[in-house]
Amino acid sequence: MKKIQILAMACGVAASGICGCEHILEIDEGGIPADGITINSLAVTDTVLMAVVTKAIPFNKAPALFAIEKDYWEYEHNADSAFIKQVQLPEAEVTAIVNESDTYPMRYNPETWCYVSDYRPQEGDRIRITASSGTMPVAEAEASVPPARRVELVDCKMVYSKNLPRKEPGKFMVDLGGRDTVAVVTLRFADPPGADYYRLKVRSIADSEDPKDGSELVTDVFTSDDDLFRDHRLNKPYGWWEAGFSNVFDGRMCEGQTRTVVVESRLRYGPNPRVEVELQSLTRDFYYYLKSCELYRITEQNDYSELVQIHSNVTGGWGIFGGIASDGGFVVRF
């Protein structure tokens, strides 16, 4: 909406008495073009560099969202594939430049809707992705692959914990795949001096009861009493994630120290139960992107909600280009 019509009533003591006047106020949209390019990519060590490059569209032109559950939203039925096709840019020119010296063209893969290169990022690499298409402004983003930090197992034990339902207005939620057994894992990692950003992945996994199926039952939800994982901005739970809890954190509370933390993960039903633990090093921009997404996912989808701005480091467009490194972590089997 470019114009808002308002009626201003000005009252004062004057010879003419009370007067009224109507004004047309122009709203400046900041010069941002109505269309542009979005780049979403992660530079992950030992994985071929890929990027999703699409056309950016205004939020109000995306398919309508509707609630599956209280804290889970999807686009309207059957809109996903049509929406994805609408924003594709299969003819874009996308390039990755590594350490300001090596250039890798990225080719469009119609099966995955991604642009793919032949380059595998390594720790310390600085990468710049540029994307252009038609008359839209050139979009570009930079990220450096952070150094991996080692996480090691100190102790692990199993404890009984009844799988209690979570009560919500009008319904109960039960972790249908969870046992009455929780794995209590003690782990340790060293944080060097300086600004570092992390995501701790704790995944409880079990194989399918049917050997021919080949699927797995997986959850990445875990809990901990350690203050590293406290985020008071997350004042609502999300799924089975507790309110005030986040597995994305920075190193300010343990800078230059070796930190020992205890995490708990409910085991899954099925053969070969196990818990995988991985500490991921993140780039600063990707850290802030994940934090903004955590706030967005607990925000009510209505016109009265406070806006949450998703962090972006793309110039000339929108999106996120981040880096992740990990030593692979460890697996505990039960």
Could you walk me through the main structural features you see in this protein, from its secondary elements to its overall organization?
This protein has 2 helices and 22 strands. It is mainly beta and 334 residues long. Strands 3, 4, 7, 8, 9, 10, 11, 16, 17, 18, 20, 21 and 22 form a 13-stranded mixed beta sheet that branches. A 3-stranded antiparallel beta sheet has the order 12-15-19, with no helix packed on it. The protein has a two-stranded antiparallel ribbon with strand order 1-2. The longest helix has 14 residues. The protein is globular, with a radius of gyration of 25 Å. The chain starts with a strand and ends with a strand. The N terminus is likely disordered.
Largest sheet: 13 strands, mixed
Order of helices and strands: EEEEEEHEEEEEEEEEEEEEEHEE
- Overall pLDDT confidence: 85
Q: Which outline best applies?
A: globular
Q: Radius of gyration from the CA trace?
A: 25 Å
In short:
The protein is mainly beta. The chain has helices at 80-87, 284-297; strands at residues 3-10, 19-26, 36-44, 50-56, 65-69, 72-75, 93-98, 102-109, 114-116, 126-132, 139-144, 151-160, 166-168, 171-173, 178-190, 197-207, 216-219, 248-250, 258-268, 274-282, 318-325, 330-333. It is 7% helix and 45% strand.
